[in-house]
């Protein structure tokens, strides 16, 4: 401002200037103080220890840690049977032909953009996912009693469902099978639920402890949440029969328990998508409520794309709508909205009848190869006269076999035969091939005879 110029506001302007100059002096002083203090700041990094030096190194994840150990082993005969990911007969990861075809279609579509999805994800993907798990003619879908939201594979779907329940459900206890997938207790605990177990597996028969299951769920407090593996129970590979499922359903409805299904292997267990969803559909058919977490990691081989969905079946359409509004409030501060690519692949395949049929053929081939590996391993152990009854290998279903080997035997097999698996004796049948079955059978035979 020119010094000779005066106006009615000049006095207010000069007072504003004085305030501004005072602020500048204050900031300059503060800056000098902060520069002096930086040498003593615990986070400056120039002197002293890190503020995180007290952090203890965490142990490796019990499942993913198996792969870390396997990768460090230089042996040419090493075998990784730890992580549940499908492998071909040559031991290679598989990308389904129908997935490559869908990706090419998406790539060629110039109208596609990379904008944010809605909080609940791709509407078409959600609709098709519900139809896949509940059936095309599901009355719950027809009556708009189902809300489905896209999540980050099975784990993310479980976590979103668990956080919703921790906020809005009157019971905070969830009963999970003993044993179960190692991530289940952590997911539910961190979401704010209290975790208890119910008996499921019988180590003596290497089958199901059905009586124990009925007793434990029968004594659970009314309204408790119950985690159920829809099919191909992980880690045991032991599933209830349809008759047993019906008994479980009756008990759960009688006690007003809330079923929460984890469906990680639809189509991957039997090779039939409808057959593997029967347990869930029984619970939906009675008009009751349930939660279902879905994953496309295994059945479409989309492990790294993290594609999943959470469906909540409600008694009424207006309830489903309100539940969805609250699921959005769980998702928004967690991951804001889900990724677009993997779910677009799934939607492309599910909505096209030719691609869908092609997918079911490839899915049946994967399931068939795993069933074949079970038979080959069982035959190899029988041929060697390995002590014990190994019929559970062919009775169990899905990606995993719970061998019944103990942690000392597992350690011996890793040390002497370079075979890697989880310490509870769970092996991924998908990691086996006709070439590696004899090596595994030799290792099991040696472990059983020398480390009993």
TrEMBL record:
Pfam families found in the cross-reference section: Aminotran_1_2
Record EC number: 2.6.1.1
Catalysis performed (reactions): L-aspartate + 2-oxoglutarate = oxaloacetate + L-glutamate
Cofactor(s) the protein requires to work: pyridoxal 5'-phosphate
Record-annotated Aminotransferase class I/classII large domain positions: 78-444
PROSITE patterns: AA_TRANSFER_CLASS_1
GO cellular component: mitochondrion
Gene Ontology MF terms in the entry: L-aspartate:2-oxoglutarate aminotransferase activity; pyridoxal phosphate binding
GO biological processes: amino acid metabolic process
Domain of life of the source: Eukaryota
Keywords: Aminotransferase, Pyridoxal phosphate, Transferase
UniProt similarity note: Belongs to the class-I pyridoxal-phosphate-dependent aminotransferase family.
Other information: In eukaryotes there are cytoplasmic, mitochondrial and chloroplastic isozymes.
Assembly: Homodimer.
NCBIfam families, sorted: PRK09257.1
Protein name: Aspartate aminotransferase
Species annotation: Gossypium klotzschianum
């Amino acid at each position: 401002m020119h010094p000779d110029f005066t106006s009615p506001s000049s006095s207010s302007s000069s007072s504003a200037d004085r305030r501004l100059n005072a602020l500048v002096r204050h900031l300059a002083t503060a800056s000098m103080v902060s520069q002096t203090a930086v040498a003593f700041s615990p986070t400056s990094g120039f002197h002293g220890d890190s503020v995180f030096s007290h952090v203890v190194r965490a142990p490796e994840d019990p499942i993913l840690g198996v792969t870390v150990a396997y990768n460090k082993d230089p042996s040419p005969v090493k075998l990784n049977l730890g992580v549940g990911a499908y492998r071909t007969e040559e031991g290679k990861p598989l990308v389904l032909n129908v997935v490559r075809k869908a990706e090419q279609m998406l790539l060629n579509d110039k109208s596609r953009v990379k904008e944010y999805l809605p909080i609940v994800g791709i509407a078409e993907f959600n609709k098709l996912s519900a139809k896949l798990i509940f059936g095309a003619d599901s009355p719950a879908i027809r009556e708009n009693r189902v809300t489905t939201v896209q999540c980050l594979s099975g784990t993310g779907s479980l976590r979103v469902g668990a956080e919703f329940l921790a906020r809005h459900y009157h019971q905070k206890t969830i009963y999970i099978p003993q044993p179960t997938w190692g991530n289940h207790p952590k997911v539910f605990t961190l979401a704010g639920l209290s975790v208890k177990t119910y008996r499921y597996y019988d180590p003596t028969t290497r089958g199901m402890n059905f009586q124990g299951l009925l007793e434990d769920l029968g004594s659970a407090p009314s309204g408790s949440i119950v985690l159920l593996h829809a099919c191909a129970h992980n880690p045991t590979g032991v599933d209830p029969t349809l008759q047993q499922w019906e008994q479980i359903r009756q008990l759960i409805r009688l006690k007003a328990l809330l079923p929460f299904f984890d469906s990680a292997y639809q189509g991957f267990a039997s090779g039939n998508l409808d057959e593997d969803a029967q347990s869930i559909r029984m619970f939906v058919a009675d008009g009751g409520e349930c939660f279902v977490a879905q994953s496309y990691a295994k059945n479409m081989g989309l492990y790294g794309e993290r594609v999943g969905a959470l469906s909540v079946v409600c008694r009424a359409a207006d309830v489903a709508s309100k539940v969805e509004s609250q699921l959005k409030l769980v998702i928004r501060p967690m991951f804001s909205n889900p990724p677009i690519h993997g779910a677009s692949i799934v939607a492309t395949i599910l909505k096209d009848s030719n691609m869908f049929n092609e997918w079911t053929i490839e899915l049946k081939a994967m399931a068939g190869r795993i069933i074949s590996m079970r038979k080959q391993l069982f035959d190899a152990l029988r041929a060697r006269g390995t002590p014990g009854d190994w019929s559970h290998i062919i009775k169990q279903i899905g990606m995993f076999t719970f061998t019944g080997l103990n942690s000392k035997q597992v350690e011996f097999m890793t040390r002497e035969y370079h075979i890697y698996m989880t310490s509870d004796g769970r092996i991924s049948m998908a990691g086996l091939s006709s070439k590696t079955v004899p090596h595994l059978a030799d290792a099991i035979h040696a472990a059983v005879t020398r480390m009993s």
